Fold this protein.
Amino acid sequence: MAIEINGTATEATPRPGQCLRTFLREQGNFGVKKGCDGGDCGACTVHVDGTPVHSCIYPAVRAEGRSVTTIEGLPSGEELHPVQQQFLEHQGFQCGFCTAGMMMTAATFDEEQKANLPRNLKGNLCRCTGYRSIADAVCGSPAEEPDGGAVAQAHTGQLGDNVPAPAGRAVVTGTARYTLDVPPEQLPGLLHLKLLRSPHAHARIVSIDTTAALQVPGVIAVFTHEDAPAQLFSTAQHELYTDDPDDTRVLDNVVRFIGQRVAAVVAESVGAAEAGARAVKVEYDLLDAVFSLQEALLPGAPAIHGEKDGETVRISRPQNNVVAEVHSELGNVEAGFAAADFIHENTYQTQRVQHVAMETHCSIAWVEPSENPGEDRLMVRSSSQVPFLVRRTLARVFDLPEDRIRVVAGRVGGGFGGKQEVLTEDLVAMAALKLRRPVQVEFTRTEQFTATTTRHPFTIKVKAGASRDGHLTAMQLDVVTNTGAYGNHAPGVMFHGCGESLAVYNCPNKKVDAQAVYTNTVPAGAFRGYGLSQMIFAIESAVDELAVGIGMDPLEFRLKNMVRPGDDMLSTNPEPEEDVFYGSYGLEQCVALVRDALERGEKRYRDAGLDNLGPGWVTGVGSALSMIDTVPPRGHFAHTRLRLLPDGTFDAAVGTAEFGNGTTTVHAQLAATALSTTASNVAVRQSDTDLVEHDTGAFGSAGTVVAGQATLLAAEELALRIRAVAAEFAGVPEADCVLEDGAVRCGERVIPFTEVHDAARQQRVELAVEGRWGGTPRSVAFNVHGFRVAVNTGTGELRILQSVQAADAGVVVNPRQCRGQVEGGVAQALGVALYEEVRVDDAGRVTTDILRQYHIPSFADVPRSEVYFAKTNDQMGPLGAKSMSESPFNPVAPALANAIRNATGVRFAALPIARDKIYLALKDAAAAATQLARI
């Protein structure tokens, strides 16, 4: 019996064992996404006879004789389904990868189900939004402006307006094209690659027998370390590749963690490639392994990269497992502690965390033939935040000129730093170059957990002192970070973590000893906050303890010690960074906004009679602040090409990627503002190494302040050229010409851009320009978070009664979008603070390797946060804007820990602060208090 898909019967027959998701995608329904293949995330939701199902666990054969509706079939002709229209109007998405599944579930809701979204959306996960915009979309709530500080203009389509995402309609209709959404006819002969991965934490490969694998029907080739380039590189991607150690090969003869690549099997189908991988026979010589920081630093410990020359590959002390280190002292901490009236000492720990971008790592590579010998081009389509850096790395590894490689990123389904790596592109490039056929790889969710990267776990010993009058006298930190088996991002995360977290406070005596250390565990990498969130958790917790110790309000203590314009921002160097300035300063505003909101919240609860939750409940408030440089150091480059088209609209070519960070919208708004048009008249093309010369990439919150600055400079130059052409055309002085509403007013005459384009052609003037920016000088951005919580001392239950964040984002380009970035950062940080943890057992094996074992926030877990914006105008950023993608994440965990401390009197120094930990700690505290009372 045929399966009816979106009203049309299909002649295709499912393969034995095939799930409905893959069957639907094979029929061209690319709106059906894979986020887990375990029924956990809901990205693959479709309707079968009107009932929503997770198609990744629904056997395709069961759909025979039934009617299946995907997101592509939800509209009625050109008219969107009401839920699609609402998601579009409320922008209930960011990266959009989960959106189709979310809408397919919500499209079936009645009013009773809409009234209980925590229960009825529990099967659909979103990593980007924080769910507030999704709730507004599902329920059709009135659109809300951000709370304070940045009210959108009335639909100008320019700076300050809530311009909708240009890809919005494509996202809600399922036609936005992500990495693997490529019709098969565009890639004839497509092959699939799967990996055999190491079962051992540390071993040398003695031999690999591929005979049986090559006999599996459909297997085309098996690649091992003998086929891989010898060039060492780092999977981490930075403008300067020398920022990271060259400690990695595409395929190595030594494996250093469970899950490392051993062999790559390429076949006609995914199933054949998987069978081939299972058939590969490997003989290993097992080596001693180290799994903890303490083991790795012991004298005589197994040296994980001990065979490498540290100076050549940029490893600080390979024989001691130390990738990078910093040792500094400003002032004299011993004297500072002697002058202190109160000293706090504690060891703080942060855990491994996975990015859980809904789109897993994936790539396709093929060779585009040329009529000229030796000029064939390697083409790569990848889910990457850094396509230009990927191109550079592939050129280096495979010894190819960069102009013979093209890397394109389609719409990227989330990143959070995890896609600032080369984890798939090198594999498909190697296979495509050797086989001369297109090759695709797509990681499973389990591979994401066990074989990509995590956030760096930090162990931070803090000693801090303060005087009775509320001044910091000394801060001493001993920091050890766990980079896992490879050093990708290890130096940068360590240095950055020890930077702004300390520099935000005036303290005459600061000492830091920090080391990034190898272990035989899953590698760590770039993660939202890039080391700052780990350090801020420790420092902001310690600052709170100092305030309590001297009897001062914690926010007052912060106000007394935090930097202000004119103060040097110092951390590990005696001199401030020479290119970092106070482009604007909104930290005091942010503190005031959070304090006022918490006071109003207290009054609301008191007036509503909710300030007493009953026996066993205690309440408390807590806050934390953070500072971040708006651009990464040592150069971050962007290039934009902008031109006026014959129809009076504009074409903008930029290098930066779109993965829910909203840069596409921001670039259109910045250009539209400079050109006195609307964002809808600016078409942005991006993430293609053939479009522009270079772009360092979408990381370090650089999409607005670096790439956006390049676009603004181009737009301002183009505006000048348009004025000059119009002035000559009208025969008036250029000073009399002004751009307005998609035209040029020259005195009393209004010349539409279409006529300006024609005039430019007659004058032989090219209305096409380029803009460049190098990421310097840099400014600083600030965030302050506050919580009001209730804790049940008998059960350990935690309730978040109020969540509020104030952000200094400069002039807010798009208030709705910026609010969404803050809300998404808060939601992700709450997961990290309360329950997320990549657990590794005593043998080095990741045990939380599927979503149902690794709890990311669902709808029911995330409180609605109040978001406020300081009113500042940054001198460095484009039109006064600052970065605001990473920083909302950073103060959340310590603010929550401080609120719990305020409520219970117990300091939680290790993340996550799970309910069982709260229960046990309160039980121990009660027992200790009882024991003390008996003495």
